[in-house]
Automatic annotation (TrEMBL):
Keyword Transferase: no
PANTHER family the record matches: NITROGEN METABOLITE REPRESSION PROTEIN NMRA FAMILY MEMBER (PTHR42748), NMRA LIKE REDOX SENSOR 1-RELATED (PTHR42748:SF7)
The entry's keywords: NADP
Domain of life where this protein originates: Bacteria
Lineage of source species: Bacteria, Pseudomonadati, Bacteroidota, Cytophagia, Cytophagales
Descriptive protein name: NAD(P)H-binding protein
Domain NAD(P)-binding: 8-157
Length: 175
């Protein structure tokens, strides 16, 4: 299977790319910063592509069986900005159709399912829910992952000194 990874330079994308390669898959990284991607993965094929435009993705997706996405909404993003998990996914779906990609795999999050529960609402979760709806309506077979927490986060966003922030699903419900 030939997999295109869009987001191999990201926190979760890096280890996922290494593991997919170790597992023996043929990989092409599609990155907006080709040099940065090459520094991380000197032995993997890398193509330039940006989720902001469909046209930049069609060529790099040629011959690909599965496009794999580890996208995020960064803390600096505002609701009216471009979001990779919104317009970026629309562009990716269109490019995937043009290139004949057979499956899209997308890393989502279990926590976003608590949107609208007990009055809780966050625009970030609304976008993540929309991403799932877009993929399901795309007509392209899909695989969507709903993880809770990755170990990679423990030393970054979840660690403050000797404390680790752990929000489990029961706590989110109670809040
Ligand atoms: N951390 C956790 O414990 C956890 C738990 C559950 C779910 N998740 C999910 O994991 C997902 C991934 O998170 P992450 O922290 O790995 O994200 P991240 O580090 O912010 O990585 C985002 C990736 O998207 C790429 N990207 C951004 N804009 C792009 C564009 N216009 N075109 C093409 N690529 C673009 C980035 O490339 P550049 O290097 O060029 O910026 C980067 O590789 C999140 O959606 C989150 O919901 C995480």
């Amino acid at each position: 299977m030939h997999i295109a990874i869009i987001s191999a330079t990201g926190m979760i994308g890096k280890p996922v790319t290494h593991e997919l390669r170790k597992a023996g898959f043929s990989i092409r990284i599609i990155a907006r910063d080709v040099d940065a991607a090459r520094r991380l993965f000197p032995d993997i094929e890398i193509a330039a592509g940006d989720l902001r435009t469909t046209a930049s993705l069609v060529g790099p997706l040629q011959g690909i069986d599965t496009a794999y996405l580890n996208l995020s909404i960064r803390q600096t993003e505002k609701p009216a900005d471009f979001h990779t998990e919104e317009q970026g996914i629309v562009n990716l779906i269109e490019a995937a159709k043009q290139a004949g990609v057979r499956r899209i795999a997308y890393l989502s999050s279990i926590v976003m399912r608590y949107q609208d529960m007990d009055g809780f609402s966050w625009w970030v979760f609304a976008i993540k829910q929309k991403a799932v709806r877009l993929l399901k309506a795309s007509g392209i077979p899909y695989t969507i992952f709903y993880p809770s927490c990755f170990m990679e986060s423990l030393n970054t966003t979840q660690r403050v000194g000797r404390f680790v922030l752990q929000i489990d699903l029961l706590c989110v419900r109670a809040i």
